[in-house]
Amino acid sequence: MKVKNKLEEMLKVNEGNKHAELIITNLIEQCGGNPVLAEAVCKDDKNWDGCWAYVRNKAREQAINNCACIADDVVYQWASDYFLAKTPSKPKTEAPKPIVDTPKQRRVNPRPRPVKAEETADCGQIRMVF
Asked: Using CA atoms, how far apart are residues 44 and 94, in angstroms rounded to an integer?
């Protein structure tokens, strides 16, 4: 009964959201015959927002040119997969790496700069300016 209460609460919170209504209603039906899924749905670290993000990401993986056509059964399976998946452990925080100052290397321009030729007024010679 705990799982049904949790899912019905999700339905109330997402009232009017057709995607949530369809997926959560399907989860209620699946949990009736699958005690493993029912137990997974009851976990506190799983919620509708996480489920919806998981489903959207899976759909994006299938998309071609930002367009995807996914069967309902596949979406319902992804929702179940989200709840059944083990929550990844938080990554171990490593000590921050020290910032090492490295001397900036001078960028060498592969094309030489055009040389401006200026004629001096006093002797008619050309002075090259780089």
From this structure: 27
Look at residue 104 and tell me if it is in a domain.
Answer: no
DSSP letter, residue 16: T
Residue 6: enclosing H or E segment and its boundaries? helix 2-13
SS3 117: strand
The answer to whether 78 touches 55, Cβ cutoff 8 Å, is: yes
Query: Any idea what the Cα angle at residue 36 is, between residues 50 and 33, rounded to 5°?
Result: 105
pLDDT, tens digit, 9 for 90 and up, residues 53-101: 999 999 999 998 888 889 999 999 999 999 999 865 444 455 555 666 6
Whole-model pTM above 0.85?
no
Listed in sequence order, the residues at least 6 apart from 9 whose beta carbon sits closer than 8 Å to its beta carbon are none
> Is 119 among the domain residues?
no
Range of the domain at 55: 2-84
Residue scoring higher pLDDT (115 or 64): 64
